[in-house]
Each structure stands twice: as C-alpha cells, then as structure tokens.
Amino acid sequence: MIANPETTANANKRLVRRLVLLTVGMFAFGFLLIPFYDVLCKITGLNGKTGGRVEVVEAVKVDESRTVTVEFVASLNIGAPWEFAPKVARMQVHPGQFYQTHFWAKNLADQPMTGQAIPSVSPGLAASHFQKIECFCFNRQLFQANEGKEMPVTFRIDPNLPADVRTVTLSYTFFRIDNAGS
Amino acid sequence: MSTASHAHDHAEDHGHDHGPPRGLTRWIYTTNHKDIGTLYLLFSLLMFFVGGSMALVIRAELFQPGLQIVNPDFFNQMTTMHALVMIFGAVMPAFVGLANWLVPMMIGAPDMALPRMNNWSFWIMPFAFTLLLSTLFLPGGGPAGGWTLYPPLVLQTGDAFPFVILAVHMMGASSIMGAINIIATILNLRAPGMTLMKMPMFVWTWLITAYLLIAVMPVLAGSVTMLLTDKFFGTSFFNAGGGGDPVMFQHIFWFFGHPEVYIMILPAFGIISMIIPTFARKPLFGYASMVYATASIAFLSFIVWAHHMFTVGMPLAGELFFMYATMLIAVPTGVKVFNWISTMWRGAMTFETPMLFAIAFVVLFTIGGFSGLMLAMAPADFQYQDTYFVVAHFHYVLVPGAVFSIMAAAYYWLPKWTGHMYDEKLGQWHFWLSTIGVNVLFFPQHFLGLAGMPRRIPDYALQFTEFNMMSTVGAFMFGFSQLLFAYNVIKTIRGGAKATDKVWEGADGLEWTLSSPPAYHTFTTAPEIR
Fold first, then answer.
1. Same structural domain for residues A54 and A93?
2. Which segments cross the bilayer (chain A) (predicted)?
3. A13, B179, B191, B445: which could form a disulfide with B210 (CB 3.0–4.6 Å)?
4. How many other C-beta atoms are found inside a 10 Å radius of the C-beta of residue A2?
C-alpha cells in the first residue's frame, strides 16, 4: 500500500527483482522438463521407447501356451529418399523365444546417404518387454548411391508381457541424419 | 479514451493537472496508464478485425465442400494465424488494456507502478504483430502447422519460421512485462485501507492472472527456443532422429497452454463479477468464495495439461489422473456461476448493453464449460479429439466467453473513459446480432464434431454441408455485426450525451467517484477507504 514515495520505490524494486527471478526460473524450468520427462519415461517405461541393445541374454522359459502377434511398420521421415519396408507384415511368436526378421531399405538418391532407424513400440507399456539382441537400429546405416539392403532384427518378447497384450507393433521411422534434415 | 481536449478541460476544472501533451508523440512517449490502456484497447480492436477477417476466409472456404476460394496451404495459414492473432493480439492485449485503465483507478493508485516499462510493453506489440503478419507475404507463406506449433510439422514452415518464433518471443516479453507491472501496482500501490480482501474482483482476477502469465509465458519462450535450435542449430530436443521426442514438445507446450486458457478467462470472470452486481443492484454474492475459486482454478490449471493429449498413448493411470483433475475444475467454476446467478436472484435488474453481454456470458460460457467436461472424459475424448467438437468448445468459452466479457467491459466503462454515453440502441442491436450470430456460428459445429468432421481441413464430406453452411452464415452475421461495435465505440469517443460521474445507478467502486472522463492524472493523493 502507498506509504511514502521512497519506500514504495524500494518495494517496487524488491518485488520486480523477485518477479524477474521467477520469470528466469520458469524459463529454465521449461528446459528442465526435458531431462525430467526422460527420467520419468525411463523409470516408468512409458512412451514406447525400446531399451538399447540387450547385452546379457538370460535364458528364459519359452511360453509355448501363449501366442503374441508382432506387427511391423516402417515409415520414412520427411526428406528421407529411401524405400523402406518390412519383409513380413506380422509374425506369431511365443514369448521367450528368439525370432529374426528383416527390413528392406534402398537409397533412392544418386549419392551416398546415412540413415538412422528409430524404433517405437505400441502399446507403450509393452516397450520394456520387447528385447532386441541384434538390430539395424543400433547403428547408423550407410547406403551407397542406389544401394539396397536387407537389415536384420533379432528379438524376443519377454514372458512377463502383461497378459492383456495380444498384439505388439514394432514401428521404425527412418531418419536421414547426414546434413541433419529434420 | 479521453481525447486531448476533454482531459484538458478537466485539467482546468481541477487545477492540479497539466493534461496530456498533444500530437503523435503523446502516444509514443506516454507513460500514462490511461493512454497506454487506450492504446492496448485500440490495438486489440484492430487485431480483432484482422483475426476476424481470417476467420471469415476460413468460413467462406467451408461454406461448401470442395475447394473454392483458397488453396489448402493458405487455408492452413489462415487457421494458424487466426488463432495466433486472436489469442496474442486481440484477447490478451484487450485484458491488459482494461487492467491498465482500471486497476489504478480501482485501487486508488496514481498510475501503474512502473510507467516506463508499461510504455515499452505496449510498443513491443505492434512490432511483434507486424513481424507475424508479414510472414504471410514471405516465400512459402506464413506458419501453417497450427497455433500449437507441434513439431515435426511446424519445422516444415518456410522462411516464415524464425519470424514467427521471434514474434512469439516479443509477445511473451510484452505479456511478462505487463504482468510484472500489474502485480507491482496491485501489491504496492493500493490506497490506505484497501486490504486485499476489499479489492474489486477484477483486480483480484488480474493479480492471479498476472502470476499465471509470469509462470507460463517463459515456458512458451523456452519451448519455441528449442524449436528454433532444432531447426537451425542441429539440436534434437524434439527430433526423434537425434534421440529427442516430438511428444515432449506437446507436454511442454501444454504446460504453458492450459494456464494460458485461464489467462484468457480469469479477467473475464472479474469483469462479469463487476457488471452483474451493478445491474442487479445487489452486492456480489459470495465475494470471498469468488476469490478462492479463482485461486483454485489457477492452481488446477497447472496439473491438467495432458488432457490436451489423451490420445498420444498415456498409461491408464495418467489418463485417469488428468481426467479427474480436469473435472475438478468444474467445481470452482460452478461456484462462480452459482454466485453470479445468486447475485441476480431477486435483484432489481435492468438490461443495459453491458448487462446483456454479461448475462449472455454466464449462459454461453457455461455451455462451453459443459462441452469441456465432455472433452475431459478420456474415453469420450478419443472420439472428439481433433474434431469440430473441440473447435465448438473452445470457441464457446473464448467468443461468447472472453470476447463478450471484453465487449461488456467496453460498454460498461466507455462512458467513464470518454465522458460520453454510448448509443444504447445501437448497443442493443450489436448485442442481439452478435448473440444470435455466435450461436448460429458455433452451435452446429458441435454436431459436425460429433459426426466426425476433422478440424483444420479445408474440405469435408458431403454430409457435413448443411451445418457448415449454417455456421458460415452465422460467422458472417457475427463478423459484420462487430462493425456496429467499432462504429459505436468511435462515435462515443467523438461525442455523445454527457455521462454522469457515477454513470450507472448501481455502480460501486473507486473509479465511479472520479469525474467522467477522469482527469489525466487521478488519485495523486490516495483516497481513504472505509
């Protein structure tokens, strides 16, 4: 409230300093949300991101009684001049057993190009139960001009996959990563 | 909106007032809260017509199925720019303008606490919008990925992209400076005896809104900065190819975006809480509960952002949390609606234009609130997501909500600001044409959405034709009736019947103790509050 002008000016200065600090703090908070969400998704296994390479393969009992359908989807990010498709659209698998399938990709440009496939699993909560021991998505793939190749994925479904999940979709999006086309 | 000569007359009346300087430099250099309020309000009126013209382009294209008037890319630019202009150019500056004019007069302060920054925060706006609107003439056109700027789509914007980001930064800076100023004014410049719980509701809602602005505008600035570096500097905040995640943007954006929708409605609640008691000739029912309800809405707005993204693939627990938290907002909002109705209950009501707009606000905003509750239900939302039902919902809360409240405020305080009564008959015509127009415009969109018509698409299937035609007719009716408003405002500024100091029989508050129009400098000595 208005007292004398001098104390008001001081009060204004103090309040403005705090509010500017709050503004700067909230700007930083926006950026902090990124690591915060990354950690949250890692802990909870949300977001359909599969884990990295499975290094240690523990033997687990194959659950012959259960069949899960695995669907494969391939898509291209914009500005990626590739041909990209799964060799088979779907497979029936038993949890615990390893399977291998292939994706076909071809560079349609007349120059060498590097691509990176980014996997995503749906439903999101199945992602942590989708284990890959070999995948072309682990590395960047270099394609010579007009080169086409078959690229393998070796995976298994963890028998701990929740019982209500009967279909798992593995989707790859191919990104061109030389000259960082977005 | 006092012109130089009027304020000057009063300067002579009061003898202690030098009055405003003359000419264009008055408006450029001004640090006077009344001048800056006027500038904000006129700027917002201009942007309202700019954004409205874009809406009419959209509706004209949607009059018939197929593509008639514009190509799809321009259509998308129109939907994107319409939203950006209306949100950041029309609704928000209008509320800031009202705060500038009214907050000092309502709390008995001589001016805003930081007058020079006040000048700055206004004059950034014309530059920001020149920048934004100029993108329409750049190669590749303006932004066309929707005002929500979702990557990766928005990263395909052409040359316009950095201009849009810079414009958003400038609008954000302007809003933050305005908010800091309003908080400093309210907390430090209240007249002796004006305790927090004696403040008029409009001041309360703005205090809370200003805190919301400071909390979320920097987050928007951060998120668009990340878009900028993703596009030009090779970072991968939202680029999956580099380990980022596009859904991350949606989380950050809506952390800003949901409080933002309350930034656009809380001051409206304040305005309505001022107008209804005046014309019901009863004090506001449940003042304290209004204050607490406003604060609860502000708090809840921070924990419901993901209801905008129910379909991105959240776990069930997340869907349930955001669903229930969202529904919880209906409780404090319901408190407000009940309080407004209780204020009117057995009041000696009269129906001047501001009151008509206020009553229409209560009814139509509540319809928008109910469709919001429908959208809050996660399982139902999968059906409604990205359909015209969403468009109908947020236009009901923003047009007969926020915009009607601004119009009510303009009619209510215009006699105070200018010293002239507006043309009541014209005001009534404006009200009825707007209210009928807005319902013909947006109500059929509910049905279109429920039937599955997607939003942001320039073409549609044949079975949607009738409702779209209806909607377009309503749009042109609503749009053109706003010319009556502009005409009435200009006419009132230029002259008209002399307004009394109190203007309205039932008016209550410090601003009504001042002359109409108020002197250029008011409350240089603080009034005593009982």
1. yes
2. 19-37
3. B179
4. 19
A24/A99 same-domain check: no
- Nearest one of B182, B167, B86, B161 to B125, comparing CA atoms: B167
Domain coverage including residue A33: 5-44
Query: CB neighbours of B331 closer than 8 A, spacing ≥ 6?
Result: B296
Residue from A41, A37, A55, A48 nearest A127 by CA: A48
For residues A151 and A131, state if they share a domain. Answer: yes
B412 is catalytic: no
Residues A30 and A120 in one domain: no
Q: What domains can be seen in chain B, in order of their start residue?
A: 4-513 (1.20.210.10)
CA angle B240, B242, B244 (to 5 degrees): 50
CB-based contact B101:B413 (threshold 8 Å): yes
Domain count across chain A:
2
Q: Are residue A64 and residue A94 in the same domain, yes or no? A: yes
Looking at the fold, whether A40 and A117 belong to one and the same domain comes out as: no
Exactly one of B40, B123, B147, B512 is catalytic; which is it?
Answer: B147
pLDDT (tens, 9 = 90+) of chain B, 530 residues, equals: 334 444 444 444 444 556 788 888 899 999 999 999 999 999 999 999 999 999 999 999 999 999 999 999 999 999 999 999 999 999 999 999 999 999 999 999 999 999 999 999 999 999 999 999 999 999 989 999 999 999 989 998 989 999 999 999 999 999 999 999 999 999 999 999 999 999 999 999 999 999 999 999 999 999 999 999 999 998 989 988 777 888 999 999 999 999 999 999 999 999 999 999 999 999 999 999 999 999 999 999 999 999 999 998 888 888 999 999 999 999 999 999 999 999 999 999 999 999 999 999 999 999 999 999 999 999 999 999 999 999 999 999 999 999 999 999 999 999 999 999 999 999 999 999 999 999 999 999 999 999 999 999 999 999 999 999 999 999 999 999 999 999 999 999 999 999 999 999 999 999 999 999 999 999 988 888 87
Measured between beta carbons, the chain A residues lying within 8 angstroms of B317 are none
Contact A176 B241 (CB under 8 A): yes
Q: What is the CATH number of the domain that holds A144?
A: 2.60.370.10
Whether residues A34 and A89 fall in one domain? no
Q: Is A176 on the interface with B (CB under 8 A)?
A: yes
The whole-angstrom separation of Cα B499 and Cα B504 is 9
Could you tell me which residues come within 8 angstroms of residue A70 by beta carbon, excluding any fewer than 6 positions away? A90, A91, A92, A93, A99, A155, A157, A167, A168, A169, A170
Question: Closest to A15 (Cβ–Cβ): which among B152, B187, B231?
Answer: B187
